[in-house]
Amino acid sequence: MPTSYLNERLRTAVTSDRFLRAARGAPDRPQQITNHATQAVLGELVRLIPSARVLEIGTYFADTSRYLAEIMVDTGGQLTTIDPFGGARVPGIIARWPGALQQRVTFRPDNSMAFFLKLEERQTQIGAGAPFDIIFVDGHHTFEYAFFDLMRSALYLRPGGAIVVDNVSQAGPAEALRLFLSDHQHWSLFEIDANSPGFGFMPQVESSILLAPEGLELTPTPCKFQFFDIRRTQIDSIRLNVLRGHGGRIIATTNLYVMPLDQHITGIGAQSSVATIDHALQPSQMEGAVLRYHPPLKVAPLSPDHPVNVEIEISHVHDEDTVHLLLDADSPIAFGT
């Protein structure tokens, strides 16, 4: 879904009578912690994105989880909600809900680092194949935790999706959001009133809405791309499929590797070929920057049962005239031979 489309649809949604009634929403429910307007805008996002896949970081008493599940009964979609302190609390709360709501929610007693690490270990895709359309960041509010949640959420969010960050009146989430926006040119901060103080999307609301671009943005912070079982043992070049952006330099470290299936037990037999390229971008390369390896990266095949994998960490170093590269979400990188 293009960012401009979601922005326009959301702007219409938050001026509707339905949203305004939900945003006022007094009184609070007994176990409600999240602001009515924040819940209401999450609900509108679920309605706007068909069969939305939602991640909630921070379940607490699952009031927001239930609010979204009630909407998903009509719209479709699935909510995954995580809370490392909720293992003894949340399952019992969800078990008391009607069955139709329970079917829309999966609870995991994980902290966000463990959860995102499991996604990586399961070889979960990023870009067009990412697992979530909407992510609600409402976990630990210290800067380091909030920034980690924001960066990982951006990686596992589908292009054109949305991240809602709560408690942005607090210093930790506010600084995490400020730093993220300073490094991500193609993301947009949704606002109803440009005169609203801080990062809140409307007056007296302590949450922000980030709308993702339609591609994968390369920033000065390295982004890791992983490719599994690529069916080749040599790489001469890689091509970045660029949608937008120009100027600056690409710094890419590529690791072509293969290992026996029992390497995690024996610790032996792994092969790895690593190279780093620092490549100045030319105007003629903007639609497809090609990075060539001299010499090529090579590994020796072990057997058909030993897949060859690639990790590529790429950063885009910019200057005053640089516009960050936005890569195609379906095929950000192609391999040459």
Rg (C-alpha, Å): 22 Å
CATH superfamily of the largest domain: Vaccinia Virus protein VP39
Summed up, the domain count is 2
What is the straight-line distance between the termini?
Answer: 33 Å
Taken as a percent bin, the fraction of beta residues is 25-35%
Query: What is the CATH level 1 assignment of the largest domain?
Result: Alpha Beta
**Total beta strands:** 16
**Mean pLDDT over the full residue set:** 91
Estimated helix fraction: 25-40%
Q: Secondary-structure element sequence?
A: HHHEHEHHEHEHEHEEEEEEHEEEEE
Structural class: alpha+beta
Biggest sheet layout: 7 strands, mixed
Report on this structure:
By secondary structure, the protein is of the alpha+beta class. It has two domains: 3-214, Rossmann fold; 223-336, no CATH class. The protein is 28% helix and 32% strand. The chain has ten helices and 16 strands. It has a seven-stranded mixed beta sheet with strand order 3-2-1-4-5-7-6, sandwiched between helices. Strands 8, 10, 13, 15 and 16 form a five-stranded antiparallel beta sheet that branches. It has a four-stranded antiparallel beta sheet with strand order 9-14-11-12, with no helix packed on it. The longest helix has 13 residues, at 36-48. The relative contact order is 0.12. The mean pLDDT is 91.
